[in-house]
Amino acid sequence: MIILAIDPGPVRSAWAVMDGTEILSHGLELNNRILVRMTDRGNPYTWANPDHLAIEMIASYGRPVGAEIFETCVWIGRFIERWGSNHTKIMRLDVKKEICHSGMARDPHIRQAIIDLHPHTGGGKIPQIGTKAKPGPLYGVKADIWAAIGVGLTYNILHGKP
Fold first, then answer.
1. What digits encode the pLDDT tens for the residues 98-117?
2. pTM (two decimals)
3. What are the structural domains of the chain?
4. CA 73 to chain centre
């Protein structure tokens, strides 16, 4: 099953199209552009025709939040509405527990766990990422795309395709 995993944001969101641990494509785009891609998801030039949407869901931890969090919630709803019924909301705590086996994990721990899951096929200091001349399977992954990959991996672990 091919998964579209999204780490939503108030203006831009990170996404990764995945088949198990294999990352077919990824990006960081304006939310409106992602909505357009969702509308045209059967187009092979848009995405690899994902079967399911896994999206990170906001959770309340009793702390005050700002306008950005509420705007992100609006975008989560818009993405789900556009996609349709075949979706799963993934909590950040689940990503930490499933990928790092600890609810105390932070972003650098998740990034390292994702790197550790991939083969050493590229060049450079971190061959899973690689270099321009010899890219690895995670070449070009940066910023919030790591979180989107974490959402996709968590979905696959929880639903039978680790």
1. 999 999 999 999 999 999 99
2. 0.93
3. 2-158 (3.30.420.10)
4. 16
